Amino acid sequence: MDATLDATPTIPAPARRTPSTPPRTEAPPGPTAAPPGTTPLPGAVTPTARPKAEGEAGAETGPRIGAAPTASPTASPTAPAGGPLRPAVTELRLAAFGPHRAARFALGPVTLFTGSSGSGKSQALEAYGALAALGCGRTLDEVFPDPSARVPERARPDADGRRGFRIGCTVDGPVGPVSLDLAVQAEPTLRIAGERLTQDGRTLFSTAQRDPRRRSVEAAWLTGGAVGVTRAPLPDDRLGTALLPLRVAGATADQRHVLAAVEQVVVALRSVFPCAPNPARMRTPVPTGEGRLRGDCANLADVLRRTRDECATRHALLVTAARTACAGPVADLVARGPGGPGGGLVTARLDRGPDRPATALGRLGAGELRFLALALVLLTGPGVLAVDPAAELLSARQALTVLADGLDRDLDRSQRAELLRLALLSCARGHVRLVATTGAEGAATAQGLPGVSVVDLSP
């Protein structure tokens, strides 16, 4: 089985219509053959239940993206309650993405990917970040500027020259585990080939590319009652799961269940902060702003000004951590500059204590700057970071996931240990999760620490 896509739907072919046609509803379809005019893409989609690895005895292809949602009369209309209060991604699936084939990674509160160069640890984070960006409503072109680079090298094109990749995740939360699987056509044009949202083996929502000539996908979701399933066209360049709340009325138990599952997935994907501290950009004074840390942490001085003024407890924790990670004595972290947005430039320094000259932020080493930025991220939250969580949900019901590629870059042993201590402290409270890549030394520091999962991708 090669690594290309399979978007063969089992939904009966509807009459051809333009994407502007309103949704229509119909009774649940029975088993049917693939409709005429549908062009399948080779390769099976990873099933929702745990699949056997390729070549493993008893391997199955399972349900395919594009399968119609099933409205079983005996199925419970609502998912079992009692899951975690804060939705979070608990599994990442890379069925066919870069070097990964049929890969499934369990994600805990602190998960570190390690491995040799080229093993795919950075691409695992990239796949997670891509799902998060799509969940925020970004288009495929924005998320995958070079989609062909994500297609597995051994993937063979079909008769129409199409190749692609497949990624997915499981989100656990109040309604229980919900799985999202996405098939993307990368060549010859970038578009969604199929999408599926499932729970407990039940398909709640699916899309499929019905006509390669049209820039839309056929979507189907549970409606319940006498109608069963609703169908409508959706854009083929955006995640349908993120668009679905605009289409579902919530008038039946099945519709409300679909909306609850969709909300859980979207909330988890939107609550992600990719963090890549750039020491060179942190050394210079920055304009006074709103005090929300950007992904490259270039405005660290401005954020230190805000946190010192508004959150004494977390600022004190940061100063305590700096005493372990920074050379020389540290009495405080101080920011100088105008107090209002747009009022001038802000600089920061380490206060060394009485009768000692302060050290400007720009004179610190790369490891010290990276440590301060990452520690600040772990000790704060969405209100301080430049992230757009779900505004309609209380912050107490959201968990921020920090994605950090090269967590231990430029850090020495004591800095690595202190950063992991802060990560465990923050993640134990449930409001922050960390998924990162690390080198061999960082992995060695983390091995055996309770609460840290180390995923070694070395062959």
Describe this structure in words.
β9 (216-224) and β10 form a beta hairpin. A 9-stranded antiparallel sheet has the order 1-10-9-8-7-6-5-2-3. A 5-stranded parallel sheet has the order 11-16-17-4-18, sandwiched between helices. Strands 12, 13, 14 and 15 form a 4-stranded antiparallel sheet that branches. Residues 1-68 and 71-80 have low confidence and may be disordered. It is built from 10 helices and 18 strands. The protein has helices spanning 121-135, 140-143, 240-243, 253-270, 279-282, 300-310, 312-325, 366-379, 413-428, 440-446; strands at 24-26, 88-97, 100-106, 110-114, 163-172, 178-187, 191-199, 202-208, 216-224, 228-235, 272-275, 286-287, 332-336, 345-351, 359-360, 400-404, 432-437, 452-456. The protein is elongated, with a radius of gyration of 24 Å. Helices cover 23% and strands 25% of the residues. α8 (366-379) packs parallel to α9 (413-428).
Strand content: 15-25%
Within the largest sheet, what's the order of strands? 1-10-9-8-7-6-5-2-3
* Helical/strand content category: alpha+beta
The rounded distance between the terminal residues' Cα atoms is 21 Å
Total strand count, please? 18
Count every helix, treating DSSP H or I runs of 4 or more residues as helices: 10
Percentage of helical residues? 10-25%
Shape: elongated
Largest sheet: 9 strands, antiparallel
Mean pLDDT: 82
Low-confidence stretches: 1-68, 71-80
What radius of gyration results from the CA coordinates? 24 Å
Query: What sequence of helices (H) and strands (E) makes up the elements?
Result: EEEEHHEEEEEEHHEHEHHEEEHEHEHE
